[in-house]
Amino acid sequence: MGQVTWWRGGIIYQVYPRSLMDSNDDGVGDLQGIIAKLDYISSLNVDAIWISPFFKSPMKDFGYDISDYRDIDPMFGTMADFDELITKAHSLNIKIIIDQVLSHTSDQHAWFQESRQNRTNSKADWYVWADPKDDGSAPNNWLAIFGGCAWEWEPRRQQYYLHNFLKSQPDLNFHCDDLRQAVLDNVEFWLKKGVDGFRLDAITFCYHDELLRDNPAKPKGQRQGRGFSEDNPYAYQYHYYNNTRPQTVGFIEELRALINRYPGAVTLGEVSSEDSLATMAEYTQGDDRLHMAYSFELLTDDFSAAYIRQTVEELEASIGNGWPCWAIGNHDVQRVVTRWGKGESNPDLVKMLNGMLFSLRGSVCSYQGEELGLTEAPIEFEQLQDPFGIAFWPMFKGRDGCRTPMPWSKDAIQAGFSNVAPWLPIPSAHAENAVDAQEHNAQSTLNSYRRFLAWRKQQPVLVSGDIRFVEANVSILAFERELAGNKMLVLFNLSEQSTSFDFDGYQLNAELNEHGLLAGKLVGNTIELPPFASYFANIK
Ligand code: GLC
Q1: Is residue 437 helix, strand or coil?
Q2: Cα 245 from Cα 208, distance rounded (Å)
Q3: Which residues line ligand 1 (CB under 6 A)?
Q4: Mean pLDDT in order along the chain per 10 residues (540 residues)
Q5: Ligand 1 center–CA 465 separation, angstroms
Q6: At 465, phi and psi to the nearest 5?
Q7: 169, 105 in Cβ contact below 8 A?
Q8: How many angstroms is it from 449 CA to the middle of ligand 1?
Q9: Looking at the chain, which terminus has fewer C-beta neighbours within 10 angstroms, N or C?
Q10: DSSP labels for 449-475?
Q11: Glycosyl hydrolase family 13 catalytic domain location, by residue (predicted)?
């Protein structure tokens, strides 16, 4: 199988194109900027990059509102730039995964412009249209994640349309066969261009309940979800009727049938449902659904060995032959060092978090800047760009703090990202951790990241072995990985206190601590683990 299964246990580096590198000094990153940084990305020893959307868009949700699925937004460059990007990435043996936002479009998309005109046009049922209730109010109680009612009035049709996110992101009607075919045609356009796969945005939102039943209320205390809490009324409902509808599996199978015509291409679904782990398992079962899926389970504030163990064990119990992808950070949540590390960018903590992510069973999405240990950037209300943050300030400050530009050069103007003020400010603490400040320090988090991934490539058991958790002190995440009779013991001290692990019952084959993380030590029958240390050993 070789090449075909690169993604099983592969490391996918997420590029947020607005913030990787600005090549034309307009303050926003672009495709030429990514091309200029491909050598850097290659030096990280990752397998692929996932690039967040760079398609034509009014940028109300920073590219997750697409107005033309087959064109590049001029802000990011041209199709020729994209072709160059694929060619160069492939020459460096880096796969290209692009984002596909299938569940909704921008309200500026030609499909919606036509659909909204009247009830008889050729796209009349490509979006989710519904009559008002007798009292003129919205068809049901569904809410939008980014605030308020999920329905917006369209005077021309005298109907409401559904939007699960912004009102400028109308939801497509996947119950309509012609629409689904048009969506698949857009996906095929990129397969023909030679991309290696797709990250499928908001895939659980594609279908809605055609009876438009009300969502039931969710009791206090259970109101948690993808990065939000009780501060957002969206959390007050079980989203049984506007999310994770049973028909989604059928669409996923249609999509997979198309993908299979382009050998090697893969799909990675973003899952956000009432039981995301179960949905990850369901959507990746067998050979005819998604290749892999990730959810928000490790993107929350919960950080403890018990929570991580419980999450992975729950998934493992149901995943069968499906395949998970883990992420501890991305463009939607607070930077992980801040979320899990009380805001301090302790290099040992950063190394341990990356090493832990790379050691779980599954593929990995690693967000740009995590190799540098970037913290959440403080953003003032006046500087906010994210409409989600603007709507929920100050209880929720939005997603700008994790989207600030990459610092390349400590002493350069705008940390080497651009020669002009960027779209979001670069904190001085980030400049201190710039790539060039870490490059020549063998102990830096950047070099630890590179070294760990190079070492991991030599450890097939870490790439694709089974996982089984082991009892340990509360602050230790302890597990075994096993492949074809080879067993590895893996320990991480998640706390800032020293702790130890009782090695009784194990027979050591070889200590494996040449991986770039702070390493624990075997003393007698005990492994001593300083704060944020880890320990790897081959065992019998
Ligand atoms: C996904 C994206 C997020 C976007 C939303 C709507 O969750 O990751 O950034 O705002 O979908 O498309």
Answers
A1: helix
A2: 6
A3: 61, 64, 101, 165, 201-202, 270, 331-332
A4: 74 99 98 99 98 99 98 98 98 98 98 98 98 98 96 98 98 98 98 98 98 96 72 94 98 98 97 96 98 96 97 98 98 96 87 98 98 97 97 94 98 98 98 98 98 97 97 98 97 97 93 92 96 96
A5: 32
A6: -70, 165
A7: yes
A8: 27
A9: N
A10: HHHHHHHHHT-HHHHH-EEEE----TT
A11: 14-403
Residue whose entry in the numeric block shows the structure tokens 């050998």: 263
The residue whose C-alpha atom lies closest to atom 7 belonging to ligand 1 is 202
Q: How many Cα neighbours within 13 Å face the side chain of 279?
A: 27
Q: Whose CA is nearest to atom 12 of ligand 1?
A: 64
Question: Can you list the domains of the chain with their CATH numbers?
Answer: 11-106+177-455 (3.20.20.80), 466-539 (2.60.40.1180)
Catalytic residues: 201, 270
The candidate with the shortest Cα–Cα distance to 217, out of 247, 191, 240, is: 240
User: Best mutation site among 332, 388, 400 for ligand 1, i.e. most ligand atoms within 8 A of its Cβ?
Assistant: 332
**What is the position in ligand 1's atom list of the atom closest to the CA of 332?**
9
- Joined together, the tokens standing for residue 121 give 């046009």
Tokens of 213: 């039943």
- Report residue 185 as tokens: 């045609």
Residue with tokens 């590198």: 21
122, 113 Cβ separation under 8 angstroms: no
pTM, rounded to two decimals: 0.98
The rounded distance, in Å, linking the Cα atoms of 293 and 270 is 6
Q: Which two tokens stand for residue 197?
A: 């796969």
Bridge partner list, 152: 161
CA–CA dist 10, 530 (Å, integer): 29
Q: Residue 8 gets which letter from DSSP?
A: T
Q: Which atom of ligand 1 is nearest to the CA of 164?
A: 6
Contacts of 72 (CB under 8 A, 6+ apart): 31, 54, 55, 56, 78, 79, 81, 82
